[in-house]
Amino acid sequence: MSLFKARDWWSTILGEKEEFDQGCLCVADVDNSGSGQDKVVVGSYMGYLRIFNPHPVKPGDEVQPEDLLLEVQLQEPILQVEVGKFVSGTEALHLAVLHCRKLCVYAVSGTQGNVEHGNQYQIKLMYEHNLQRTACNMTYGPFGGVKGRDLICIQSMDGMLMLFEQESYAFGRFLPGFLLPGPLAYSSRTDSFITVSSCQQVESYKYQVLAFATDADERQDTEQQKLSSGKRLAVDWVLNIGEQALDICIVSFNQGVSSVFVLGERNFFCLKDNGQIRFMKKLDYSPSCFIPYCSVQEGTINTLMANHNKMLNVYQDVTLKWATQLPHIPISVKVANFQDLKGVIVTLSDDGHLQCSYLGTDPSLFQAPKVDSREINYEEMNAEMKELQKIIREATKTQGILSYSIFLHSFIHLTLFLSLKKCKVAVQKPSLAVCVQAPLAVTCDQFVFDDLEPDSSETVVLSVFLKENCSPSELEGTCMVSYNISTGRIYRTAIYFVDSSEGDSANALGFQFLTGSKTTLLASKTSQRYRIQSDQFEDLWLVTKELIHRLEVHFKKENCKDFACTFSGSIPLQEYFELIDRHFELRLNGEKLQELLSERAVQFRAIERRLLTRFKDKTPAPLQHLDTLLEGTFREVIALADAAEENQANMFQAFAKLKSATHLVIMLISLWQKLSTDQVAILEATFLPLAEDTQELGWEETVDAAVSYLLRTCLSKSSKEQALTLSSQLSMPKDTSRLKKNITVFCDRLAKGGRLSLSTDSATQQASVMPGGCATIPESDLEERTIIPGSTAMFSSDGTCLQKQPEKSPEGLKL
């Protein structure tokens, strides 16, 4: 428990699901009791007006029913409440309530009660003003130096200051260069209004200048009428603070000296009457509200300032004197005097937490409750021990599938060592860049070191994690080191890292990816064949790649020169085409959402222009439900933007799955046709032309163009096909039927003896045909219709091609 926690003197929760703002709290002797005891006045956006008189029996007690003097629901939301001398003919305090389109002034009075329930309070409407413009906030004071009464100034949402001399409307003036309303305050010493404009400037306007300026109700836009009678509204002084202001407060605790306090988003300003900065403090937190409350030492002012960290700080000018913890984030803070306690801090949160507290250091004493001692039941412990021993014995007897229970975190920690060897000069400013392919990511991809001396080293620790919920197509990463030596040349070296942990040999091995899918590897006991099966087709790629890599490493160590991996059977194009269709469907959805979003954005801007025209009109006209249409269109734009963002994420995952499946298909084709390294490179360039997929240039049209080029060049049936020209412009196709047909024909022509080559010469083409093959690719019914082969295939590790009937199982490969 914090020693500097605000001591709760009285608190309550106002209503249910009500909202409050900065101007909804006021503290004053609103009922004119004459005792000097303040009352707490609170208004809400739900239209509820409440008046409290806190007097707890003990500090921290719950609110009593008699603490609530008055609660009434008005017809409109309450923007701001103020207490002042607002009725002519009397200097009694009255309550002013500001609504969106109305200003009401009430008299609060109480009658002596004859029973134990206490006095009865009621409000009486003295007068009201119907506003022609939507109000934002208000301020009050003795404008023009009047004595014994307060005038009211209301700022509208379109920048008009409307001044009321109690029961009558005086005049209205538009602020120059207005865009959005800011906080407004009145300085009685200089008789001026101070606000903060959208240009992030503190501006001061004299009351006399406002009174003699051109009337806002008669303002015209023509140049001739601009030069007619009436003066142009001129600003008294301007100060640029470089940020938006949250609140303005003007106080004068010493005779003849007043200060203008401005609370910004990150700074706190204290200004003189002429706009010069008296002092300024940079805040290391986000403030929410403030109030200057007294002057303890001559020439200084104490200020209470709350922030979004639930802290209340006490400053003497710029010096922090005290800090205390609050149970909520206040949006308004006041200082009140009650009968039992003077200088109570009253805070209000945006969800209706009203609290009266005081500062103190008496800690809340807490005693831990006694723990009930429980006797040990040895019979239950023995039974549990026997059950656990039984489970252990059954687990040790289990044979067959080798099961690994490995708990992997989403982060894989890697340690890289950078050492300088065989170099007699120092290396200047070496830098290390780490790159992995999406959806993998690293915690830090750039490292910069100090100069390395000969035979010295540096160690880097980083983590690789899965950024999206889909399996990666590559587990390899690249580390690039750049450094300078005295020759002035830049040297680079590449380091590759990949997980190559060894495991025990067994008949079967299961893998579970971070995405949740499972893959099983089965080894034949009688022949050198492996079977790989998985719930998802694309998840076969990583396991198949790692298996072939480890087989090659193993037989290379054994000096087995006749080792070869082969694959026989049909290419699993059915599942591959399903991934293509899914990816293409998401691209179509993205294009439709983009068109709908553009249409709704145009509609939204058109409604905004019409509303702006209505608001700028001198004679207010009905909105004709334009505000309702604007709100509905805005919701549609937000919903479409969220749908487009979700579709983009789904398309990213679909493309990652498509890349994994494409890698697998390329590997199977290379093993099936025993392609050389150059031919595999052509195959990869054909089916993996893009590192990232975009809406403008997608995978489907790019691969379709590349496959069509191969079918018309090295895999052409005759010279007529070689003479055909391809379109030089790529565009998004209507469907994937042409692409799937070209891929099927591509595989069929490879099966008929075609070989991949970048040369289109017929002699070169014939020389590239394997012995026993056909120089001319025969006609096939496969080119007239799309045939989807099965999903089961096998290859042998001893180089012999094996034939076996397909089995019904999840998507799998037999090796």
Automatic annotation (TrEMBL):
Residues forming coiled coils: 371-398
Gene Ontology CC, one term: membrane
InterPro entries registered for this protein in UniProt: PHTB1_GAE_dom (IPR028074), PHTB1_N_dom (IPR028073), PTHB1 (IPR026511), PTHB1_CtH_dom (IPR055364), PTHB1_hp_dom (IPR055363), PTHB1_pf_dom (IPR055362)
GO biological-process terms attached to the record: cilium assembly
Domain PTHB1 platform stretches: 497-568
Origin superkingdom: Eukaryota
Domain PTHB1 GAE stretches: 422-488
UniProt keyword list: Coiled coil
All residue ranges annotated as the PTHB1 N-terminal domain in the record: 1-363
Sequence ranges assigned to domain PTHB1 hairpin in this UniProt record: 570-673
Official protein name in the record: Bardet-Biedl syndrome 9
Native organism taxonomy: Eukaryota, Metazoa, Chordata, Craniata, Vertebrata
